[in-house]
Design brief:
106 residues, single chain, 0% strand, mainly alpha
Length: 106
């Protein structure tokens, strides 16, 4: 996996989450249960992200900080990073894992 592949994967994952927000399959008719909870989470997450990024009074750095905090609170980035790395996680040294964690979040 190259370093340039990682941002593309992250962008695709976030785009997938955003698309779920507008998917006709996930609608108001979804009853209580895991699918409804997942749809609600994605919808609320997307609404918060869009509201943050649409704030005309915030600087690009403030947008970046707000979105980073939203990602930290909405996702377990440590587990997600491990899953993205897959079998290579076990092959990495402790130092490589720590460096990867920092880069993955960034």
């Amino acid at each position: 996996m190259t370093l340039t592949a990682m941002p593309r994967r992250r962008a695709l994952a976030l785009a997938g989450l955003a698309l779920l927000n507008w998917s006709p399959a996930i609608g108001a008719d979804a009853g209580p249960g895991p699918a409804h909870a997942a749809a609600s989470f994605v919808r609320e997450f997307a609404d918060r992200a869009i509201a943050m990024l649409a704030d005309p009074g915030a600087s690009p750095a403030e947008h970046n900080d707000a979105l980073r905090e939203l990602l930290r609170t909405g996702f377990d980035l440590d587990v997600t990073g491990r899953l993205v790395l897959g079998r290579y996680w076990r092959q990495a040294s402790a130092r490589q894992r720590e460096a990867y964690r920092a880069l993955f979040e960034d």
